[in-house]
Design goal:
By secondary structure, this protein is of the alpha+beta class. It has two helices and ten strands.
Length: about 150
């Protein structure tokens, strides 16, 4: 098997740098499909969709997995930077809690829709976005790539 040189990976959130480390390979969820990243690749700038960022060790074994709800990736020959609004380690995602959050938002949305006067809870774009992120997070745990 060909040995790959490690490259610098930075995962940045609006609050702070989440992760800065050397990795052998990473797979990121681009809008066009999963994108494998190795050192020496041609430069690329791409949008990320909600999904799992998977990091690989020297033996090309999946060593770390993180859920991101979207963002952007800047890939150069020596470095990759992921800009994401939030990130959570897949192992820390609790399926029951996530399902409960989804149910709660769906119930609130249904209550708002049934409110004939238009008063009460409002189902806005932010709520729809949060619901989509929770559904993607749940899917990332139940359909875990790169076992």
């Amino acid at each position: 098997m060909e040995k790959h040189e490690p490259f610098s990976l930075e995962i940045l959130t609006p609050q702070k740098p989440f992760l800065v480390k050397k990795v052998t390979m990473a797979v990121v969820p681009s809008q066009d499909g999963d994108c494998g990243v190795l050192s020496g690749m041609a430069p690329l700038l791409c949008a990320l969709r909600g999904g799992v960022v998977c990091l690989f060790d020297e033996q090309l074994e999946a060593s770390e997995r993180y859920f991101v709800p979207g963002g952007a990736a800047w890939i150069t020959r020596e470095r990759t930077v992921l800009l994401v609004p939030e990130i959570v380690e897949v192992a820390r995602i609790d399926v029951h809690t996530t399902k409960a959050e989804i149910r709660k938002i769906e119930e609130q949305t249904n209550d708002a829709k049934s409110d004939k006067k238009g008063e009460g809870k409002v189902h806005d774009a932010q709520t729809a976005s949060r619901l989509e992120v929770l559904r993607q997070r749940l899917e990332s745990v139940t359909n875990l790539p790169y076992h």
